[in-house]
């Protein structure tokens, strides 16, 4: 059942428009589809809760390309990825693609003037607010350079964390270094309408057809009586 009208959590700022299949259940009734439930927090921000992964703020919903962009309310999505394994399996959303990354905590000197072996091989994450620098570098199962990168980082005093696999936007599927850990990009497949909505549509169509038929029968009966009157 589609929403009767699209809404926003707030008219100020750039809050996304909420329309089918998404819904704010306490404001749009039964419109929308289960699993696409959004809420509005006290600041007028749009919130999506992913099962087992917690709440994210919604930056943008692209209904044409079926893309939803989520961000961390504390402004550090990379730290959240590192602290908690992201699980979208129990949600209706999926990634455009997935890439595996290693996080490394490094002394500032290791990344301020990196050696040639590291040039263009890592992403500098600036939101951790720690004494050490946190960098991220992609891991490829078919690449032999990853172990070399790890060796160089270890030699520079970096502590490498366990790898994590996360969804990435479409452009980062082709070029992983285009992803800056700013937002979480997810997509979805339009859900099928519930069977009862199709049934309701069929019932309404049948009623409309019957109404037209009754009207036509009444019209022809009326015309027939007029013809009989003129004959007399």
Automatic annotation (TrEMBL):
GO MF annotation terms: polysaccharide binding; ubiquitin protein ligase activity; zinc ion binding
Transmembrane segments: 201-221
Topological type in the membrane: Single-pass membrane protein
Sorted UniProt keywords: Membrane, Metal-binding, Signal, Transferase, Transmembrane, Transmembrane helix, Ubl conjugation pathway, Zinc, Zinc-finger
Enzyme class: transferase
Domain annotation Wall-associated receptor kinase galacturonan-binding: ranges: 9-72
PANTHER family associated with the record: OS01G0116300 PROTEIN, RING/U-BOX SUPERFAMILY PROTEIN
Protein's recorded name: RING-type E3 ubiquitin transferase
